[in-house]
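To make the argument concrete, we let one protein speak, a sequence paired with a row of structure tokens, as a model reads it:
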Amino acid sequence: MMRPSKFQTYRAVWHIAKQSEQHPLRLMTLVGVLIALSTGLGVLLPYVLKLLIDQSQLGEFKTQTVFNISMLYLLAFAYAMGWFISQSLDQLKNMLSAFFLRNFESALVYQGIQNFFNLHYEEQKKIDAGVFNSDLWRGATAFGQLTYTILFILIPVVVQILGMVWVLAQNIGLVYALYFFIFSIVTLGLSILITFKTEDIFSEMYASRNSLNQFIIEKIQSAYDIKVNAAASYELNEFRSRIEIFKQKTGKNYKKAVLFMMYQLVFIGLFLLFFMLFSVYLFDKQQLTSGDFVLISTYIVSLTLPLMMMSQSIIRLRGDFIATQKYYDYFQLNVDQFSHHTYSDHNVFYTFEDASLMLGQHVIEHFNFKIEQGKCYVAIGRTGIGKTSFIHYLMGLQHIRSGKLTYKNLDLSTQFSEQVFNDIAFVSQNPMVYSGTLRQNLVHNSRYTYSDDELYEWLRRFHLSTLLKDNQLDLDDDLQDLYKSFSGGEKQRISIIRALLKRPQLLIMDEPTAALDERTSLELIPILKAQVSTIFMISHASYALHFADEIIDFNEIISKHAHETQ
């Protein structure tokens, strides 16, 4: 697939941002107006200063009329007020610019997370959390900076140059103004050219930082294993090696960035030197008044700062384009294509008809199976044989290769329907407790509301009342970091309650009692059967088989298929 151009990427990310930031043009217009006013004052104030100086000299050496003294006071007042207004506009502009950048950043981070949730499961598995987090925030920030640099730094500098040229043409002469214009535009153009003609120094820097982030998050997630194996020193040595590689690569690229800046400094310095010397020459030849000399000097000095800012922004511009492209790359990955088709009620939930599917490393052909209402199914089989893969077909994470899979009377063979999630609930073998309150964890994603008494009763039935007492917790207390210390069994039971509060017609569970002792499991499974009439459960526990209306032995399925294909 051909990579989109920078303009295409920018336009695409702009449309992505607009999905959350509905009216970006309003704030952009306001910032633009403030910048236009500030730029106009930047051109006007040196001209007022010129008039002030020329008028003061006129009053001192020629006449002392009231008119000239009054004009001097007026010009002095105008200059002071202009400076005050200019500074006030700059402060207001900076504040609104911060809001502008914040809004874009927030919108793009939100859309990036939304896109991640919409990605196909196989795509999500390939993404490293640390790299994704870095790319997400860097890209969101870069797009705002990119927009701000182009609209509110580059364009105002050009407008400021044009305004100065017009004032110089009116007061000094067209030829001088044209020289000023040519030198200014050439300096600006060379800054842009140097930046975009030099080699890319940002991709390597981003890749180095992403590698560190990936390592850090991986090791934090593996802290338990590192602790019990006394591997901290080993991991720190590994990390130190990566830090040294990071320092070498970024150091080399920082030097290149400084070199680019020095090139631009040379051009800006030459621009400053030439026009200052040229202005001194004209003043010496009495072709310029004192006010003219101050006007030109002020314009030249006042241009050096925005030109320097612009040079730095242009150097970052290339990195911003790269970061924006990396952000947009995630939107090019495969997303889930859910249908919104509805279905009628039926006494059979799932039906596999002559289906071909992958179970673990095995391709199963001509597979036929039904999950009927009112039954408890227990799936057994050795580790890695494909039991969890089978659940992925039920949950829409994978699609069968051929044949037919239906939910009630709805065909799911090629496209899953979001409506199915209204009927089913899932409990993973890796139970999750999220940040937030305990209430939010219990009613998470449920369409129903529950009173405090009902939630306390659920906690009591699942032997979690002591969790609140021991930690002095209420339903609406923020768990903060406390949830990270919950035991596996506590997390498991919270996950099961969460699934039951969705009031599903079908409950699908992957090793739901793995973190529970046998006694607790024997108490809880009857509660599950009483709440949900249809259950599909993967379990290695032999006692779970006593609750099964039907047992699915995946060892037998694989062996039978292997025998048939021989």
Summary: The beta strands are 348-359, 362-372, 376-380, 402-407, 410-411, 424-427, 506-510, 534-538, 550-553. The chain has a mean pLDDT of 84. The radius of gyration is 35 Å. Residues 12-20+96-332 form a domain with the ABC transporter transmembrane region fold fold (CATH 1.20.1560.10).
